[in-house]
Amino acid sequence: MGLLLNHSREFAAHDLLIPSDHVIYLPVDAEDLPLVDKSVDIVVSRNNLDHVSVPAVVVREVYRVLRPGGFFILIVHLEPEASITEPHAFSADDIRLLMRQFSTVNEAIYHGGRTEAADTLAGLYQKPE
Prior knowledge:
By secondary structure, this protein is α/β, with parallel strands linked by helices.
């Protein structure tokens, strides 16, 4: 089973969700996931972690609901300082510290281009077996 933490309502409104019996789209509070422990194979968070109240709580919740060996795909903007639109400022090292419970499978930083002012970190992390 997979879990998409954010943008579910927006994607559904534009018919962008992939129909599947194996994916659950939950427009929920990521800081209090309504799922049992070790029940999810993969979690995707796209530009979400810097907009929640307490990012460490979200990471802890993801870890809790992932099965051993499960994957967390995280995409987050890297900002030098917080702002109204980016309430939490993260460096790559900040993200690595938050993700220390996970094994890093792959991580890349994409530098801001014409449409993105900020750099973006994309990471694939795995919960240990």
